[in-house]
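Encode chain A's predicted structure.
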Amino acid sequence: MNVPLLDLKAQYRSIKPEIDAAVAEVFESQYFIMGPRVKACEEAIAAYSGVAHAIGVASGTDALLIALMAEGIGPGDEVITTPYTFFATAGSVARLGAKPVFVDIDPVTFNIDVKGIAARINARTRAIIPVHLYGQMADMDPLMELARRHNLVVIEDAAQAIGAEYQGRRAGSIGDYGCFSFFPSKNLGGAGDGGMVVTRDRGRADKLSILRVHGMEPKYYHRLLGGNFRFDALQAAVIEVKLRHLDHWTAARQSNAQRYDRLLTAAGVVGPHRLTLPQVVMNRHIFNQYIIRTARRDELKAHLLSRQVGVEVYYPVPLHLQECFSGLKGRPGDFPESERAALETLALPIYPELSEAQAQYVVESIAEFYRR
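Encoded structure for chain A:
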């Protein structure tokens, strides 16, 4: 059996008439950049996320970048975040000339360890970027309390977590900004790059709207130094259609995660010297990824790939050890939980269309590895 890590063709087939009609409508209008489809998508994402405003941008990376730009963060400033995340989180900070300052992760949720943040705050600190990794939110209440005490901006990196919740509040709705990615592999993925920034604050939303069009307001009059961060109408049309199915897909992901938990436990591969399963700590984990841990990760990965099971390592090198951040003087051992996660974590297929037979095959392949 061949079990891909992700099957976007299966998802497309399930909603093909809706997607095709929405795309055809954009072509008929010939209105490709911004416009009514983008506005409709923004309103839908804002409502879904429980905020007043949403600003579509060209990618999840641009969402982070433009939020930082809106706060005037640049040279001499520091932004606290996690070293165990996709590069864009810290890369956006460094791109503006500011310094990413890392705090290690909680080993259970893989999110920033809020208890470690206070020690990293100083007079240069301007913001905190918690990452809701793999679809589970960071511990936001103590983080927000700390941020307010020190007058710091909070930018939620919710690229993997649209629809996730923390004590009944949606990802992106708690901090000053929430940043989403619509990269095709995400739980809400477009037909290319795309992103969104959400905020409760009208003034911030207005500034973001100006920054994404080269700081222009009105046309050809540039109030700010912005950039070309505009959202395509085609992407907006696709996202708006898919959003209507997102809760159903999330329920399927959660069901698949529970099935894995049950089958892996029954197979006897969970426990010391074998696998650790993902833990649901916050109340709505949307399982953008299903992450297992094992000290024999690379061996298990090779075995599963040989059995035609798609797996992936997110992320093999934590950011403090990346070559481009060598100027930060990071060394092995600085953030032990992040480094251990980078060596032990492995993502299994979790997409909504995953069948029971496919899940059983994945588990049987894992069990075979440990029997061998």
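The chain has two domains: 8-103+110-243, 246-371.
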